Amino acid sequence: MSPTPRISARVGRIAGVSAAAAALALGVAGTASACNISEFTAAANCTDGKGVITVTDKDSSGTPATVTLYLQSNGSEKEVGSQVVTGSAEGATITFEENWAPKATYRIHVKTDKYNVDEDIKGGVTTPATACATEKPTPPASTPPASSPAPSKPATKPTPSASESTSAAAPAPSNSASPAGDSNLAETGASSNTGMFAGIAAALVVAGGGVVFALRKRGAKS
After folding, report:
1. Residue among 47, 164, 52, 40 nearest 111 (CA)
2. Would you give the distance in Å from CA 133 to the centre of its chain?
3. How many CB atoms are located within 10 Å of the residue 88 CB?
4. Which of 31, 107, 176, 207 has the smallest CB count inside 10 Å?
5. Contact 74, 35 (CB under 8 A)
């Protein structure tokens, strides 16, 4: 028995609904796995006392994305740098070494070739009010106290010259009076032997007189 037109129409409707449901499920699944800007987050952190900006991509589709960082200041902006990140369900993170100032504002732009993502991360990043604390330098090791210097040798006195030695050796004139006898002897040139010489001279005179007297007496007798 051939199916009636009503049954055929019902079967066709069921098949169409099933196909539409399958297509919708595939579309939802594709949309869920597609890369979108909501999967990107950014933050300002400190690493080893230096400021950094990190961007994390939790795109389970693994779509490569180009992330560009801009510093905004007084109505203008300056490009800090650009990196490529490949997202994952656990999250892939890239780091911009930016020694940021407190309360600075950054814009982060994301662009992909697939799924046509080309927009900024909502809200960007505003850095904390306090800058990163720099590491304190390691204090130098304590050094032992310096030993006291050895006593210096006394300076050698210069050797006096010959003229100085002669003048130093000469005795100073004495102001004390010499004995009277010594002074007279020095003035007359006599010595203590003068009396002895005078006695000998007197004896010779006496002897000479005796000789002369004897000779005269002998001549008278002859």
Report:
1. 40
2. 21
3. 13
4. 176
5. no
CA 49, chain centre distance (Å): 21
Per-residue pLDDT of the chain (222 residues; tens, 9 = 90+): 555 656 656 655 665 555 555 444 444 344 446 789 999 999 999 999 999 999 999 999 999 999 999 999 999 999 999 999 999 999 999 999 999 999 999 999 999 998 889 999 999 999 999 999 865 656 666 666 666 666 666 566 656 555 555 454 545 555 554 444 444 544 455 555 667 777 887 888 777 877 777 777 777 665
User: Within 10 A of 126 (CB to CB), how many other CB atoms are there?
Assistant: 14
Q: Give pTM, 2 decimals.
A: 0.49
Which has the closest alpha carbon to 84: 67, 60, 108, 62? 67
Neighbours of 195 (CB within 10 A): 9
CB under 8 Å to 50, separation ≥6 — which residues?
Answer: 97, 99, 132
Strand partners, 52: 45
Question: What CA–CA distance (Å, rounded) separates 218 from 119?
Answer: 180
Return the structure tokens found at 27.
């579309």
Q: Which amino acid is at 171?
A: P
